[in-house]
Structure formats: structure tokens, C-alpha cells
């Protein structure tokens, strides 16, 4: 049966009717699959949550032990059967390459296969296994950076800009705005790989998640909470990482001669960077850029592409030009949170 | 070119006038002529013509990308040069010889024949990085917008040459890019450039909007009160070397107003308001607009809408310079000059007789009802003529805006600073149960409100027409505007002057917004 007959967009989000389950619902529901731990996808208050163990840990770290009534930890490639035992929906999670624990969801029902990619990227990310191409009839892809103007440079060249800036402005505190989950840890790892061995200072909101990554075996080097630094003046010439919202916040005023920096895919658009009063934009993204989106559609070769949150129009057009049947799926609510870019 | 592109990139992201000035001075010290002079011209906006048109850039781009993807990208990025900078494909075989200097590139484009421009541009775009492409397109279409105004450029040059900004101001309109003589003088290597044989613009003195605190401190007997005319500010210059009419930014607009200029014979520099005048009768701004931007106005147009100058200040007559005389004296000189002129197009802006606060306020209310003026001007009688916007010398007291409650109908993404936010709004008023658009507004909201509006548009889109989103007819905004005019170009039959957001009425139901007939009541008779 064609997935359009058993999957729909409801107020809470994408809904698989025969399994009575939502993917990344935005409202509390009975059954939910959570693709990854970003706050706009993982909300608390569901009765039952299916997710990878890492995603469940992230949710527990953020929302506490009672973030859901029941949780089902699912390893990648494990399958569960949902719904009516005589007419089940088979559900499997596959790596999405977006952040630690991120997954795609494969639904198999009455002979057809639907993949919900969640958020994903194709670049190497040392904190999670790479995106896996899962053959399917309908592929639901995100389109956060779904315009051909978006081509993310290699992370190494962006981190080089930061390192150069530290040399040019040795007396300025380099305050990097980076989303607490995923981006922050990737920036730290990239700095380490570039040979930056000094301690990196963290805003309080990033500490628990960095600790979680370290427990998962990701070596982030020496991290020091900014709150533990008695004399903030000593942070001149150091790297401080904070959530992007903290850049314009009172919190950052205690830091010496701040150089505002943001690590995000949005930083490719100059006006965006300037709107946020960023002096050094770093184009570092946990999403696909345009070439990766196209490459993925080529690789997956689905019969149909459904495009969600982001710039759907362009990707629908492109997929159609490439000979795929494509349509936009209007799932609102995800695209507003730009900090996850 | 590499150095110039780097400079622009840094200036773009560096906030603060001082930090920008430091970057530019560093560039001027380390960059040879003529590159640095062309960079000054690009930043100060004194390049005389576009090296290529935006449309040529667009055409080249469309030869390389699907037009739908181009439009969607442009709509999102909100700016042509950046869109193209990102979209331009790097060719498989790159000519990797080093880019020439800025001066050489400028010369190449200036000397290129019409048919050579596009291939030249394409060749450079192929050889450049995204940020260099951005710089080249910005340069070539003269749309830099990196937060350095002509005025601040002059201040930076004064700092660079360790001189006063007035010195630069006085020379500015007599020297030309690439400013080799000017820079040489600023570096102490040669004499000051001689500009005595040119008809030049003299930077004008500007006013501040008045607020209640300013108003409270004003003793009308120490101030000269005049009408604030609703025309355009101009400077009339007549010397033995020729004559010209300049806009307040120094653009030469003589060609559009020969009927006024031909009547002027005495050597002078006058400051005043350009208006359409039938004898001493002032016509509306709406009428003046038909005379603006006409390269060669037809005689019929000049006869039906004659241009006049309402003079309100004098900078010099013959060889006598009056910048350093107080307004009270300049006024006497101007008065005498206008009285003895033969030009029927030259008028004297009357000084209004006000000696008390209550009289001033009465006058303000009267001025608000007069369609040819837009408020009052208050100038200190002892003010010298100081170019720029000195504090506490001149005030403008604009009449209160008119307000209507209108319903947001369509939204479009903004450009430049507002790029990728929905910030351009079309709003309408009710005729029976149909909304008719009455205008567009782009300003008047805070950054915080802009974010909320953008979010609201995304959530309430009911249709799309290219880049335009039609929204649910539910959001009421209180729109402020300066005047309403009848218009045959709009279906609603009305055109608003300078509409902007006054307040967003998140609380107000759309059916309580104003009717078109109520808005039409505000049309000036």
C-alpha cells in the first residue's frame, strides 16, 4: 500500500496510522519515535518513546528521568513490529550522521517502504556513525539548507579561520556561539584535531551534554566551566563556547573584549551573520548542504521524495528535474529554531 | 583585488566606526596608487558609472543555473551580488594566474567596449573566490553598503592625512578618483590640489528632528522660524566657471531643471528647497515628483510644472564667503540678494513672526494643515553655516503623521540588513467585505517585532506568488504616513506618502480595521 495512504501530517507532526505512532511529535502523544535529541525534535511528555540509547540519554539529560512514561532503546538496524500483530508495521532505525544518536526511521508496511531521514548530513562526523543509504519507495528528506547557495566548506578551513583569529587578536576573548548538542562538541573536536590543546571554556548550558559525550567515549580534551574562572580577565585570548543566544546576553558582558563568533550553516549568508552581530562567521553545519541533498536523493533512488522543514520549494523542483516524483510536506515548527543549523 | 576584497569582507563584519576607520587607514597605508584611490571612490560612492549592470550579472548567472533555483535563491538571500557569489560554479579548468590590482580591473571595465563587458566579467567571476566575486559585483554595480558613508570616508581621510575634515569637505567635490593628488597631499608629498576653476558642491548643514526636551529649551526670540517645505533640498551654485544645481548629497541634477537654472545669472551659492511653483504659489510634492529624474524634461512639462527655488540660506555671493557669519546676518544678505535678482523663479522663504511659545505651537498646528509644507524649521539666529549635522543649531519639527488601521495582506522578504526576513508588507483597507491594498511598508518595527512578524508570516501563509506570500487576513497594523494622495495607478485609488508601521495591533480583529472610505477622508484637498 502506498505510504500516502498510511502516513499523514497531523497537528503534532508526522503520523503513521497503522502503528499509531508519531515521528518527532511537537505535542505530547501516546507513541513517539524520536530521531535525535535536538529540542525541536525531542520533546518531553510522551507516553512511549522509541529512540536510540544515545538519544534517550540525551533526553534524560535534558528533561530528567521522567521525560516519558516508557522508553524503548533501539540499536541501529534493530527492528520492532508495531500496531496490529496480524498486520504489523515494521520499524527500524538507521544512522543519520547528524549528531550523537541521530537516526533515520524506516517504516515497512504492506509491501512498501518509507524512510523518514530526520535531520542528517553526509560529511564525516567523529561523534556519530555515517548516514546510511536505505533503499525505499518514499524518502522524506529535510531541506534546512535546501538552496543551491548553500555549500558548506570543509570544517578544517573554518576552524583555521578561528585559529588565525586567535593569533591576530590575542587579547580578545573568542566567544563561539554553538548549539549545545552536536555543534559544540564538533567544534571542540575540530579544534583538537587542528592541534589546539589549550583548555576550552564552556558556558554552563553546555556542560552536561559535553560530559555525556565524554562518557560515550568522545575525547574533548580539557574543558573548564566559565563559572569556575574567578578572574574573567584571564579569558582574553581564550576560546569560550556558549549557546548562540548567550552572545547578545548579559552573560557575555563579563568576558574581556569579546570577539563574537558563531558556528552555523546559516553563517554562509552575510546578512544573517551581521544581523546577529557576528564578527567571525564560521560555516559549520550538522545538516546537508545542497550538493549533499542532491547526492542523497541520487543514492537512495526512491520512487518519491517528500521534502520537509526548510526550503522545500527548491529541493522539490530539483528532485522533479532529476526525474523523481516530489512534493513538499508542510511540517511546521522545526524550521524556526535556527540555532540547530 | 585580493586586498580590496579582504578589506570589504572585514569592514562588512566589523562593527563600530573607529574599528572600520582603522581598517581603512591600514589599507590606505599598505596599498599603492591607483588601487587605494579607486577603493576610496567605491566606498564613498563617487564612481561615476556602473562597470556592468545588475542585469548583465543576472544574465550570466542564468546561463549557468536553472532559473527557478536562481529565483528561489535570490529571494532567500535577498541580495544579487551575494546570491551570484555563492551560485557561480567554479569551472573545471581554472585560470589560476594571480588577480590584477583593483586599479587595473577598474581600468579594464571602464575601457571595455559594450560587447566585451560580459566576457570580461565572466572571466573574473570564474577566477575568483565567493567573497571576491561578492566584492567585484558590489564594486561594479556601485552598491557597496558596508557601513562607511561618504561623510565618514572624509573623516577617515582627514585622520589619514592628519588634517581637519573641513579641509577634505572643501576639496571633495573638486577632486576625482583615483584621488592621486589628494592622497599625495594627505601624505605630505605635494601641495594641496587646486580646485578654484571648478563648479563644486559645498556640503550642506542639516537639522535634527526636534523632541519635547529640545522644544522645552527653545526661546522663540532667539530662533528663526520658517516653514519646512515639502520639496527637495538643493544647492544652487553659479560661478564664473559655470552653474549647477546639486542635490543635498552633491549629485548634479542641473539637467532636469534648466528652466530654473537658466534664470540665474549672479554668482552665488544658495541653499533652498526645490519646488514646483506657479508664481509664488507652491504646488505639492506629488507634482514635483513628475519633474524628478527626467534626463531631458519636455518643454510642455516645464511649462505646466515650473521649477522654483525657495531660498533659505546663502553660503557665498561673488567672492564673499558667509559660512562663518551668523544666520541673522546671512539672512539679511540673502534677503537683499533675492530682492534684487531678476530671476522670477527665485523666492525667499519667509521668516515667520513668532516671539512666544504659545504662538509657536499655534503656528505648528496651522502648518500641519497646509499641504505644501510639512512642518516648521527652527534655526538658531546665531548659528554659523556648519556642514554636517551639528547639534542644537537647526531643528525640523515635522507635522504629526496620519494614522490608519490596516490589514496585512501580502509579505515579501527584505533586502540587505533584513535579508531573508519577511519585512516588506502590503496592507489594505476594507471596501464592503473586500480588502483593497492601499500601500506597502518596510519600517517602523523593532528587530524583535520583525522576528515576530516573520514568524507570523510563515505560519499564516495562504498562498504564494513567486517571492510574495499571501497571508491570512487577520493581522491589523496601525500605519503612519505623511500624506495621502489620489492615485489612478492603484485599484484603491489612493497612494500614501512614506507609510510605515506605527504599532502592530496583535489584539485587534481584522474586521475592525479602517474602511477605504475612511482612509480617503485623509486625502488632502
Blueprint of the fold:
The complex is a heterodimer of chains A (341) and B (525).
Chain A: E1 7-10, E2 13-16, E3 21-23, E4 31-33, E5 46-51, H1 53-63, E6 68-73, E7 79-82, E8 89-95, E9 103-109, E10 112-116, E11 138-143, H2 155-168, E12 173-177, H3 183-193, E13 200-202, H4 204-215, E14 223-225, E15 239-242, E16 258-263, H5 270-275, E17 280-282, H6 290-300, E18 304-310, H7 312-321, E19 325-328
Parallel strand pairs in A: 3-4, 4-5, 5-6, 10-11, 11-18, 12-15, 12-16, 13-14, 13-15, 16-17, 18-19
Antiparallel strand pairs in A: 1-2, 2-3, 7-8, 8-9, 9-10
Chain B: H1 2-13, H2 17-30, H3 35-44, H4 54-62, H5 67-77, H6 80-87, H7 102-111, H8 117-127, H9 130-140, H10 150-161, H11 165-172, H12 180-186, E1 208-209, H13 212-217, E2 223-229, E3 232-239, E4 242-247, H14 258-261, E5 268-278, E6 281-282, H15 285-289, H16 299-304, E7 307-317, E8 320-321, H17 327-340, E9 346-348, H18 357-369, E10 373-380, E11 394-398, E12 402-413, E13 422-431, E14 434-441, H19 447-459, E15 461-465, E16 468-471, E17 476-481, E18 483-486, E19 494-497, E20 500-505, H20 516-520
Parallel strand pairs in B: 1-11, 7-9
Antiparallel strand pairs in B: 2-10, 3-4, 3-5, 5-6, 5-7, 7-8, 10-11, 12-13, 12-16, 12-17, 13-14, 15-16, 17-20, 18-19
Helix pairs in contact in B: 1-2, 1-9, 2-10, 3-7, 4-6, 5-6, 6-9, 10-11
Amino acid at each position: 500500500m502506498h505510504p500516502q495512504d498510511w502516513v499523514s501530517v497531523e497537528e503534532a507532526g508526522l503520523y503513521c496510522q497503522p502503528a499509531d505512532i508519531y515521528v518527532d511529535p511537537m505535542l505530547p502523544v501516546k507513541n513517539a519515535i524520536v530521531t535525535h535529541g535536538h529540542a525541536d525534535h525531542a520533546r518531553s511528555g510522551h507516553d512511549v518513546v522509541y529512540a536510540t540509547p544515545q538519544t534517550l540519554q540525551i533526553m534524560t539529560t535534558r528533561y530528567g528521568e521522567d521525560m516519558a512514561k516508557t522508553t524503548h532503546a533501539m540499536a541501529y538496524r534493530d527492528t520492532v513490529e508495531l500496531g496490529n500483530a496480524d498486520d504489523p508495521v515494521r520499524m527500524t532505525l538507521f544512522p543519520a550522521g547528524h549528531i550523537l544518536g541521530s537516526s533515520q526511521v524506516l517504516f515497512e508496511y504492506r509491501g512498501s517502504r518509507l524512510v523518514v531521514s530526520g535531520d542528517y548530513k553526509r560529511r564525516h562526523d567523529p561523534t556519530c556513525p555515517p548516514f546510511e543509504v536505505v533503499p525505499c519507495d518514499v524518502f522524506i528528506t529535510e531541506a534546512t539548507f535546501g538552496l543551491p547557495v548553500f555549500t558548506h566548506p570543509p570544517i578544517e578551513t573554518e576552524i583555521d579561520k578561528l585559529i588565525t583569529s586567535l593569533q591576530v587578536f590575542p587579547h580578545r576573548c573568542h566567544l563561539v556561539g554553538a548549539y549545545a548538542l552536536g555543534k559544540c562538541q564538533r567544534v571542540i573536536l575540530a579544534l583538537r584535531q587542528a592541534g589546539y590543546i589549550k583548555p576550552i571554556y564552556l558556558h554552563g548550558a553546555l556542560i552536561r551534554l559535553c560530559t555525556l559525550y565524554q562518557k560515550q567515549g568522545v575525547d574533548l580534551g580539557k574543558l573548564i566551566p566559565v563559572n569556575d574562572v574567578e578572574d574573567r580577565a584571564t579569558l582574553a585570548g581564550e576560546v569560550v563556547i556558549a549557546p548562540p543566544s548567550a552572545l547578545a546576553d548579559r552573560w557575555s558582558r563579563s568576558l574581556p573584549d569579546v570577539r563574537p563568533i558563531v558556528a552555523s550553516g546559516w553563517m554562509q549568508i552575510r546578512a544573517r551573520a551581521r544581523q546577529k552581530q557576528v564578527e567571525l562567521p564560521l560555516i559549520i553545519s550538522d545538516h546537508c548542504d545542497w550538493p549533499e541533498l542532491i547526492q542523497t536523493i541520487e543514492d537512495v533512488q526512491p520512487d518519491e521524495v517528500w521534502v520537509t522543514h526548510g526550503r522545500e520549494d527548491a529541493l522539490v523542483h530539483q528532485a522533479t528535474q532529476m526525474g523523481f516524483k516530489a512534493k513538499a510536506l508542510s511540517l511546521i515548527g522545526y524550521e524556526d529554531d535556527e540555532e540547530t543549523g | 583585488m585580493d586586498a580590496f576584497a579582504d578589506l570589504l569582507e572585514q569592514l562588512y563584519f566589523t562593527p563600530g566606526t573607529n574599528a572600520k576607520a582603522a581598517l581603512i587607514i591600514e589599507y590606505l597605508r599598505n596599498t599603492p596608487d591607483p588601487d587605494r584611490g579607486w577603493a576610496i571612490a567605491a566606498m564613498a560612492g563617487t564612481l561615476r558609472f556602473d562597470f556592468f549592470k545588475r542585469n548583465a550579472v543576472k544574465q550570466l548567472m542564468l546561463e549557468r543555473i536553472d532559473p527557478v533555483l536562481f529565483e528561489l535563491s535570490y529571494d532567500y538571500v535577498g541580495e544579487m551580488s551575494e546570491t551570484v557569489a555563492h551560485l557561480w560554479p567554479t569551472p573545471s579548468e581554472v585560470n589560476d594566474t594571480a588577480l590584477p590590482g583593483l586599479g587595473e580591473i577598474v581600468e579594464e571595465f571602464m575601457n571595455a567596449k559594450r560587447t566585451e563587458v560580459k566576457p570580461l566579467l565572466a572571466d573574473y567571476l570564474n577566477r575568483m573566490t565567493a567573497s571576491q566575486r561578492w566584492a567585484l559585483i558590489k564594486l561594479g554595480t556601485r552598491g557597496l553598503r558596508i557601513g562607511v558613508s561618504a561623510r565618514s570616508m572624509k573623516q577617515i581621510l582627514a585622520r589619514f592625512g592628519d588634517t581637519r575634515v573641513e579641509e577634505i569637505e572643501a576639496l571633495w567635490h573638486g577632486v576625482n578618483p583615483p584621488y592621486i593628488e589628494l592622497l599625495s597631499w594627505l601624505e605630505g608629498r605635494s601641495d594641496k590640489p587646486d580646485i578654484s576653476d571648478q563648479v563644486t558642491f559645498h556640503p550642506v548643514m542639516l537639522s535634527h528632528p526636534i523632541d519635547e526636551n529640545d522644544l522645552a529649551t527653545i526661546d522663540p526670540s532667539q530662533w528663526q522660524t520658517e516653514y519646512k517645505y515639502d520639496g527637495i533640498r538643493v544647492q544652487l551654485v553659479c560661478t564664473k566657471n559655470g552653474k549647477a544645481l546639486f542635490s543635498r548629497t552633491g549629485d548634479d541634477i542641473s539637467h532636469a531643471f534648466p528652466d530654473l537654472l537658466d534664470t540665474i545669472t549672479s554668482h552665488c551659492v544658495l541653499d533652498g528647497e526645490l519646488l514646483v511653483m506657479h508664481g509664488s504659489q507652491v504646488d505639492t510634492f506629488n507634482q514635483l515628483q513628475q519633474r524628478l529624474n527626467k534626463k531631458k524634461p519636455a518643454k510642455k512639462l516645464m511649462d505646466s510644472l515650473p521649477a522654483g527655488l525657495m531660498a533659505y540660506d546663502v553660503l557665498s555671493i561673488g567672492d564673499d564667503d558667509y559660512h562663518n557669519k551668523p544666520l541673522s546676518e546671512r539672512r539679511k544678505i540673502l534677503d537683499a540678494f533675492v530682492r534684487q535678482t531678476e530671476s522670477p523663479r527665485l523666492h525667499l522663504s519667509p521668516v515667520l513672526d513668532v516671539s512666544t511659545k504659545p504662538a509657536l505651537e499655534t503656528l505648528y498646528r496651522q502648518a500641519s494643515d497646509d499641504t505644501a509644507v510639512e512642518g516648521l524649521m527652527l534655526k538658531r539666529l546665531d548659528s554659523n553655516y556648519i556642514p554636517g549635522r551639528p547639534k542644537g543649531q537647526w531643528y525640523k519639527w515635522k507635522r504629526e503623521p496620519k494614522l490608519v488601521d490596516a490589514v496585512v495582506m501580502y509579505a515579501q522578504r527584505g533586502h540587505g540588513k533584513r535579508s531573508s526576513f519577511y519585512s516588506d508588507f502590503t496592507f489594505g483597507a476594507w471596501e464592503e467585505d473586500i480588502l483593497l491594498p492601499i500601500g506597502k511598508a518596510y519600517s517602523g518595527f523593532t528587530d524583535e517585532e520583525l522576528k515576530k512578524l516573520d514568524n507570523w508570516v510563515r505560519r499564516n501563509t495562504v498562498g504564494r506568488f513567486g517571492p510574495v506570500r499571501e497571508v491570512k487576513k487577520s493581522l491589523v497594523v496601525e500605519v503612519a504616513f505623511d500624506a495621502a494622495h489620489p492615485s489612478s495607478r492603484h485599484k484603491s485609488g489612493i497612494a500614501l506618502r512614506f507609510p510605515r508601521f506605527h504599532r502592530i495591533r496583535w489584539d485587534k480583529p481584522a474586521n475592525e480595521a479602517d474602511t477605504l472610505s475612511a482612509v480617503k477622508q485623509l486625502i488632502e484637498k
